[in-house]
Prior knowledge:
Elements: H1 28-51, E1 63-69, E2 75-81, E3 84-90, H2 92-95, E4 103-107, E5 113-117
Antiparallel strand pairs: 1-2, 2-3, 4-5
Amino acid sequence: MRYFKIKRAFVSPDSSNIRAFADNDPLTGLANLFDIGLVFIVGLLLTIFSSFHLQDLFDQTSEITIMKQSKDGQMEIITKQGKKIEAVRVTRTQAQGRGVRLGTAYRLKDGSMVYVPEE
């Protein structure tokens, strides 16, 4: 049962050598690395949100529309109006029907798109 004994280093109070507070464990720096990793992850998330201008997702008065397409061609439109978030999946059967032409969209050389409404 001697393996379960706690080994402690006691030093007399008048000694200048404070060996009782010395820590020779090589894993003591691991906790600091974990903390640094958490700070790095939070900083990375903040950088991503600011670079893609996603701060409006957290604003209660903003209105955002995001359109995404999966690999199989499935389209999804995500709209946020204030606190209400709605996601609508668009399929070919939902997009068929009669309608009125509203205008024309053009893609410019820099990649941006311009919508010109018909009068």
